[in-house]
Specification:
The chain is mainly α. It has helices at residues 7-24, 34-41, 45-51, 55-80, 85-102, 104-112, 117-137, 146-166, 172-182.
């Protein structure tokens, strides 16, 4: 048996991902029907439902996969490069901002619509897991409930992203600078 994925499944997954990104960049994912999504992807509704329960679940899967690649790259450069804590924080933050920039139209649509709260919650979940993992390897971890601290930092970062996307005058560097300025001391 081979570990290579079936090329037809890969094409189907890519078609669904492309379709949900295209449609979610035009309007809130909560307003995208499965029928519309499957038509745009050129797949059947049963094919979609064999993989996902909703367009939101598909969208989160696509965004999660990209964030996972961001974190993999970060692990590699952290292991290979000697950066100061401030340089590492700036670079890691910049890579997350690059992720948000790649999907800016999608994030703008979903963060503006209360029905699409799942996207904001997914960002918070990612940043919470990241914060907890970071605290676990910090030589002098902060005292107190780590889950509460991780939630605090995560909601702040997700909120800053939302504000940044809402203001067309702010640059990527403005967001990175704001996050670095607000980062807790244990993150340096």
């Amino acid at each position: 048996m081979t570990d290579r994925p079936d090329p037809r499944m890969v094409r189907t997954d890519r078609a669904l991902a492309d379709a949900v990104l295209r449609l979610a960049g035009q309007r809130a994912v909560s307003r995208i029907s499965v029928a519309e999504l499957t038509e745009a992807a050129g797949v059947t509704r049963p094919t979609f439902y064999n993989r996902y329960r909703s367009p939101l679940e598909l969208l989160l899967t696509v965004l999660d996969a990209d964030l996972a690649e961001v974190y993999e790259r970060e692990e590699k450069w952290r292991a290979a490069e000697r950066l100061t804590a401030d340089e590492a924080l700036r670079r890691a933050t910049g890579e997350i901002v690059d992720h948000v920039s790649r999907f800016a139209d999608v994030y703008r649509q979903t963060l503006a619509d209360p029905a699409d709260r799942g996207v904001y919650e997914a960002l918070v979940r990612h940043f919470t897991e990241y914060s907890l993992a970071f605290m676990a390897v910090t030589p002098d971890p902060p005292a107190g409930d780590r889950e509460l601290m991780a939630q605090f930092v995560s909601h702040g970062f997700a909120g800053a992203i939302k504000a940044w996307l809402s203001d067309g005058k702010l640059s990527k560097q403005d967001l990175v600078d704001a996050v670095v300025a607000c980062a807790p001391p244990w993150w340096r």
